[in-house]
Write a structure and sequence with these properties.
This protein has 3 helices and 3 strands. By secondary structure, the protein is an alpha+beta fold. It has one domain. Strands 2-1-3 form a 3-stranded antiparallel β-sheet, with no helix packed on it. The chain starts with a strand and ends in an 8-residue tail after the last helix.
C-alpha cells in the first residue's frame, strides 16, 4: 500500500479506531482481524476518496453503510 489509506468503519476495540490513517501496511491486530472478516478491507479507503466514502456511509442501504453496520452490530469477535 503506497497511498495513505483511512479506516472508515466503526472502532474495533484493541484493533483499530474509526478514522485511523494507514500507510505502509496494516498493524498486526488489524491484519489478523481481516483474516477472519475480510470485508473490513472494503472499509479501508484511499485518503483521496474519504469525502465520497463519508457521504456513502450516511446513505442507508449503501454498500459501505451495510458493512459499517455489520461490524457495529457485533460482526466482529472483539466487540465495538
Amino acid at each position: 500500500m503506497s497511498e495513505t489509506m483511512v479506516y472508515m468503519g466503526p472502532s474495533i476495540r484493541h484493533v483499530v479506531q474509526h478514522g485511523t490513517a494507514l500507510k505502509g501496511g496494516y498493524p498486526p491486530a488489524l491484519a489478523a482481524e481481516m483474516e477472519t472478516q475480510p470485508f473490513i478491507k472494503d472499509l479501508i479507503i484511499p485518503v483521496s476518496e474519504v469525502a465520497e466514502a463519508r457521504k456513502e456511509l450516511k446513505t442507508d442501504g449503501s454498500r459501505l453503510a451495510a458493512l459499517y453496520k455489520r461490524i457495529e452490530k457485533g460482526g466482529n469477535r472483539n466487540g465495538v
